[in-house]
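S.,

As promised, the iron/sulfur cluster run. Input:
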Amino acid sequence: MKALNSRYRHSPAGQLAVALYRISQAIQYLLRQRAEQESLSAAQVQALLFLKHSRPSAHTMGGLAKGISLAYPTISAMVDALERKGLVQRKVQESDRRTIMLHLTPEGEKLSGDLENLLDEIEQAIQALPQAQQEALNQAARQIIYRLNAAGYIHLHEMCWHCQFFRQNAHPDDPHGPHHCAFMDAPLAEADTYLDCPDFHPDPERR
Ligand code: SF4
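Predicted complex:
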C-alpha cells in the first residue's frame, strides 16, 4: 500500500505527489488561519476571492459552486451568510430576470482586496529557489494542472493569456479592445484579459 507514506513512493513522481500534498496542507492552513482572523469560513474566503478575480459573467450561484468546487445547497447557505455580513449582494440580472447575479459590496471589495496576500508565504518559499528552478517548476505545475483539469478533478478558471481563444493585439487601433476573444468573437480590453474566465481553454502550445 502506497498511501501518503513517502517510504513506499520511491520514484520522483511518487515523492513529488507526496510533496504536493504537503504543500496543499500548508495552503489549507493559511486559508483557515486567514478565515479565522476575518471571522469567516475558509469557503467564504474562497468565494470572496472568486468574485474578486473571475469574469462577471461567472458570478452566478452555479458559477460560484463550480468555481470553488462546492455543492449548490452549500453555496446557497454560504451566500446567505455573506449577505448577512454585508459582503455580497444578490441582484436580478437586467437582461435575463431569471438569473441571479452575485456582487461584492464595497465592504466585500475591500475585504477581498485585503485577502489577496493569502499566498505570499508560498510565493516567498518559491522565490528562494534559483530562477531556472522556478521556471521549470512553473512549467511542470501547469502541465500537471492541465492534466488534472482534463480528468475533471479541478475546474480551470484562468485568464486570457494562456487560452487558445486569445488573439493578442488583433485590433491594435482600438484602445478600448486591442485584443480579441475567438470564443465570444468579441474585442477584449486589456484589463479584462487579467480576469479568470469560465470559458478558458488551455492553449496546448503555451503549456
Ligand atoms: S474564452 Fe475567456 S479566457 Fe479565453 S480568450 Fe475568451 S475571454 Fe479570454
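The chain has seven helices and five strands. The two ends are 33 Å apart (CA to CA).

- D.
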